[in-house]
Amino acid sequence: MQVTKVLRHASRVVVGMSGGVDSTVAALLLKQQGYDVVGAFMRNWDEREETGVCTSEVEYDRVQEIANFIGIQCHRLDFVTQYWHNVFMPTIEAYEQGLTPNPDILCNVHVKFDAFYKAVRERLDADYVATGHYAAIKRNRITNAPELCQPIDRNKDQTYFLAGIPQSLLHHVLMPLSELAKGEVKALARDVGLAAVADQPESMGLCFIGKRNFGDFAQQYVGDMAAVAVTPEGMELATVPRGLLLTIGQGAKIMGQSEKLYVVSKDMRAKTITVAPGRDNPALFARRFSIRNIAWTDTNPHSIHSIQGVLASTVPNEAPLMVRTRHRGPLVECSLVHNPNTTAASTPRWHELAVSPKVPLRAIVPGQYAVFYKGGVCLGRGEICASS
Are 324 and 312 in contact (CB under 8 A)? Predict the structure, then answer.
């Protein structure tokens, strides 16, 4: 395949490639722009230990075929140990505590933008690291510092999963799909002869689970997670298999009820889940919630004054602070203050903050993340730990 070089660069870019259309087109675009492009396939899970068959070998072969077609080298890098200790085990431990973790964020924080980033910069001599994420990196008009921003295709916006990546890394990260819609990405792949890649189903779910049932998989590691469903008044309704794996706001299948019931809260010690009727039951909405393990893109402020300074100076003209509590969830205006139950002096780096959305939000889930935005700039994240 002949690739037209529009620009010429001496810079080497290593692209994380999965075999999907997004990372494929990211590599293709960078090659067309004249970068010295190298592909890298991440092996994060050793499925052979479970099944005796390693599907990552098949996936790597597919990535190698794509790389050969584009005309670039591709390397395979192993991060099984890092993934196990920093993503998989924390995920299992969180479920055991009654939380609903987000392994996609953990993977970005600890693997893709830590172990992988360091490996390709050091071992493959990369000037830049690129991914097929739908996100943008732009320069602040005042400070010229790089900022993580929302992409053109807001329906595919993946900044929620990337929030809090340190600014020091963003200097060396490229996201070539920022100005493209998903349909345009697929069309580009078809135009160069990669229709099979463009038309394959999108990969969904956790990479270490694949097509398996999550409940079946998780129970291998966390044991019996059955729970007794009770009403807010304390009346027992039924035992729900794997009920403790359900998340706040999720429907609970309980026979004999006139209306669908939704999980309002969980008690891991008592092994109960409190359920209430109706998807929009008031008990499912919160006017305030707390966050911890806070990570801002440009700093970890030690006081609410510096936090307000960061938020106010990110975008001119005082765009309102917005919060999102799940991927593709609504962006809601909010305020941010110190949690009255904690002090910045006692835990200066990982202190808690209280978030007050302008309108009540449904299903604020401990273990998930609140991600903050201002004027299209993704400022950072905090792990949700309580709501009221």
Answer: no
Please, are residues 382 and 343 in contact by the beta-carbon 8 Å criterion? Answer: no
Mind telling me the catalytic residues?
A: 107, 207
What is this structure's pTM? 0.88
Sign of the Cα torsion 182, 185, 191, 197 reads negative
Angle formed by the axes of helices 89-96 and 214-222, nearest 10°: 80
Segments in the chain forming alpha helices (H): 21-32, 48-51, 55-70, 80-83, 89-96, 103-107, 117-123, 159-162, 167-170, 182-191, 195-198, 214-222, 304-314
Burial per residue of 298-322, b for 16 or more beta-carbon CB atoms within 10 angstroms, e otherwise: bebbeeeeebeebbeebbeeebebb
Phi, psi of 367 (to 5 degrees): 105, -30
Nearest to 265 by CA among 280, 255, 275: 275
Distance CA 360, CA 363 (A): 10
What share of the chain has pLDDT > 90, as a percent?
73
What gap in Å lies between CA 349 and CA 298, rounded to an integer?
A: 14
Determine which of 35-39, 69-73, 138-142, 201-205 has the lowest per-residue pLDDT on average. 201-205
> How far apart, in Å, do the first and last CA atoms of the chain sit?
58
